Amino acid sequence: MVEPITHYVVAVTGWDLQWLFSIADPKHDPGPYREHSSLTVRGDVHRPTPFRYPHAEIILSGRTRLPEPGAAEAPQSLGYLEAREEILHAYVTVPMDRLTLLAAVADRIRLVCLTSTTLFRRRGHVRGLHVDTAFDPEDW
To answer: Which residues contact 5 (CB under 8 A, 6 or more apart)?
Structure first.
């Protein structure tokens, strides 16, 4: 069964960066150190319209170990969407080196487009991510 896909277009209004570096817990982390960083992007949902959740908060979480092409199981999603109250929440994993690039230009990011399964019971799976430093509402 093919799930319906929706493009959730968010006009960016703000962002925050979080970074953690610590000694690893050998029970949970391979290697001597643990590092985690995420870029949280906030904005207003431009598409689809009309839409019940006018605001968005998108967490882009950097990962150093993503599944390799040809892995035994192909990834089914990059993350998830969840809608509650008036906010569309998204959690999306991205390669750490790309997150570093996005953090460097965070003040210039104007648009985030999430390609996702259409919300069902206020949840969806993110299949794609588009980030842009330009936003012309007529193009979207």
So the answer is: 115, 116, 117, 118, 127
